[in-house]
Records
---
Amino acid sequence: MRNILFVISGPSGVGKGTMVERLSKGGELIFSVSCTTRAPREGEIDGVHYFFMNEEEFLRRARNGEFLEYDNHFGNYYGTLRSFIEEKLKEGSVILDLDVVGALSVKHAYPEAVLVMLLPPDKEALKQRLIHRHSETPHQIENRLARVDYELSLQDQFDYTVVNDVVEDAEKRLREIYLSEKNRAN
Ligand code: 5GP
């Protein structure tokens, strides 16, 4: 069996965070902790959900080549630490929560990475989720929704798509994909 990079992606608000949390809870999949310059949301812990840092430190790390990929979404930087991924892959499979463009960058760097795009049942469901999590302003919600069509248009470049309608069903499907990829011969 091989250790894999299992990338969960999809538009903002589709439920990537919840899914990644559920999949990494048992400890079999190690969550890739990204760096970000955005402020922590209530309940988020530094070093667990993200490594929170200011823009100066983030850009210094970017200049040092520490990120496998990084991007600016909605005014904040987000980046995947190369060293974190390389270290953790020695221990087990690694699960990443990335935006759609970041996921494709990881595939470019690691062609053997397995990319899944989570899809909303429909766009209205996505809007309702963003509104109800109360972590974005109406302006930020509009910005996030404006990107959705573009993000969905890239789904053909993903290895799998999974509709996140009933959370348990989507989780089950993701586990099946993970196990079949992990057991696949190289
Ligand atoms: P949030 O602010 O809701 O935690 O995340 C915003 C977006 O950034 C989400 O789509 C999330 O998947 C994405 N994201 C989180 N970490 C990274 C990363 O390291 N690189 C990239 N490109 N996107 C990330």
---
Amino acid sequence: MYNLDHNLDVSKLDLTKPQVMGILNVTPDSFSDGGKFLSIDKAVDRAYEMVMEGAALIDIGGESTRPGAQPVTEAEELERVLPVIEILSKALQIPISIDTSKPQVMTEAVKCGAGFINDVRALQEQGAIQTAKELDVPICLMHMQGEPRSMQHEPRYKNVIEEVKSFLLERVQLCEAAGIEKTKIVIDPGIGFGKSLEHNLSILKHLSEFVALGLPVLIGVSRKSMIGALLDEPADKRLFGGIALAAAACLAGATIIRTHDVKATSDALKICQALVHSK
Ligand code: 9MG
């Protein structure tokens, strides 16, 4: 049963019900113009489409964090994300999230109109906590063991639930000590980020323990390899598995579901909400 009694200070985001965060990866392989360059128009069109499909937040990322992904430079990341954020933040009524770990990208993105920071490194880069404090926008702190390029090489935990929970609590405490209000913090156990299939399943099974920490919980399972491992399907055939996991996460209390498949996820969350509110 979910607890949506949060008071997250995101002016245009209603977290009294579960919400969908639409993924907009602005990397050249996602929205190419037929060559190696990013097509800004195609990315903007996809964002509009996701809003029509029910997204309450659009998460824009210019650096892939998939297993095996190589880092990109700050200049490259800025060049990819800023033009899209600039257009969307003026055109859309919903908040734009910047998916980055780099303080300078956070700063420039918020200057361009982003109103949320999604950091898979939980503000561990040098200067990131101070930057987030100064920018004064809500943040998502995610757990990751290792780094994208190598994180899936034999991830190990003694107790994955306790270790991920205590990492997130420690990061929340550090943020609060730096002056970031708790009402601006979302937590995320980081499905697929330095975790085996068993670790991911265990986190999802015990998700209520993360919800019990009292902060909104964000979950991203969309098209991830855990679905591929369970169903033996490639990334483009993982929709049904992803919806099953999103619904399970929502019923366990997750407040934000990050997904590529906005319409299907949005419908599933409405069904979950109706179930939770039924007698
Ligand atoms: C950027 N990114 C990819 N997967 C993610 C997940 O599961 N959570 C968050 N917060 N960000 C993610």
---
Amino acid sequence: MLDLFAGEAPWQEPLAEGAVVFRRRVRDRGAAFLQAIDEIAAANPFWHRITPGGHVMSVAMTNCGELGWGSDSHGYRYESADAANGRRWPPMPALFRQLAREAADDAGFADFTPDACLINRYAPGAKLTLHQDKDERDLRQPIVSVSLGLPAVFLFGGLTREAACQRLLLEHGDVVVWGGPSRLRYHGILPLKPDRHPLTGEYRFNLTFRKVR
Ligand code: MD3
Ligand code: FE
């Protein structure tokens, strides 16, 4: 993929009230992030969750940290073990924890201490339909996201499902902090366009750091 910004320094842009995008913030650490993901997935492989509505999710998921996000026919919840194999989630690597803490701090959210990191893997065509993240106890805590590999179109809606959506391309190394009034905005990812990325091949990965409890 042609990267017109390959030699540029990272930069930041305010996105909305409470939301800041740090463009290319971890681009130079991409290989280290991907190696950490590989190690987590070696212990707790990616798998496709079932939604409460009975659909198989196109995004494959695993987690690290004390808690992991999960879904089955009964609903969404955070769990301390992987329902696929009964194992605890691997600990959150220091590289992950430190990045999440620093990015939150730079966006004005002090002392962010995530206890969950959901790792999403998108293959060509995988998507995430419009949803809110509201299963965390303290919604004053932000979510920090890290995008790796192939780019994807992110939809950023409003506080109701019907509100109009902004579109934003999330690219390799982009970090976004979602807090304040943006924390409950609907959002989603359009189907991944098939392509190849030098570090991730046909995939896009997204990490979301959350303080659940
Ligand atoms: C805005 N992940 O895992 S990251 C999710 O790219 C999720 O895999 C997407 O939405 C992905 O729940 C989007 C950006 C993101 C994450 C959490 C948010 C945006 C958010 C929470 C509130 C508002
Ligand atoms: Fe989300």
